[in-house]
Amino acid sequence: MHRARFALALLLAGLLAACSSGLKVRSDEDPNADFGSYRTWNFFNELGVEGGYNSPIFGEHFRAAITREMTERGYRQSSDPDLFVNVTIRSDDKVKMKSYTAPYMSGGYYSRPGSPYYGSSMGLGVGSVRRATEITEASVFIDLVDNASDGLVWQGVAVTEANEATAKRLRDAIYTAVNRVFEQFPYSARP
After folding, report:
1. Mean pLDDT over all residues of the chain?
2. Domain 2-96+136-182 has CATH 3.30.160.670
């Protein structure tokens, strides 16, 4: 269990440490949602990043970063909100294929020293090499759920290849990832 918690912490740290490069962000929304009617919000009691093997520190950082983003957009935190917010993380092991060109020397059929045809068919060629690398792709999902209908109305996702990061950079990386996701959220509670 301790090993699984460490692996998950490393995964999240890797995801968020990559915020400056390689972070892919996307969002989707319910076309029937009336975003102009939403004024208040709050978190689910326990975020997806706070349960199970996840560190409560992750939840604290996400809560602070999301609070900042929602407040900047004019939404008020309320005990009876219009929107609930949840954050979850997921990892997927994948195979990444990379192709690159590689020069090589080639010789003719009789190109060994001492052969009467030595050196006659030598050449420089260029070939393509493919290399498969196992990677872990990490994703952070930020969900906004309509309290009245209990339906998902907006989801922002940040995806990157996981790598190592230091705990010192984790807080800043979470804030950066949340900010990049909320750049996809064009709505405001302000008239």
Report:
1. 79
2. yes
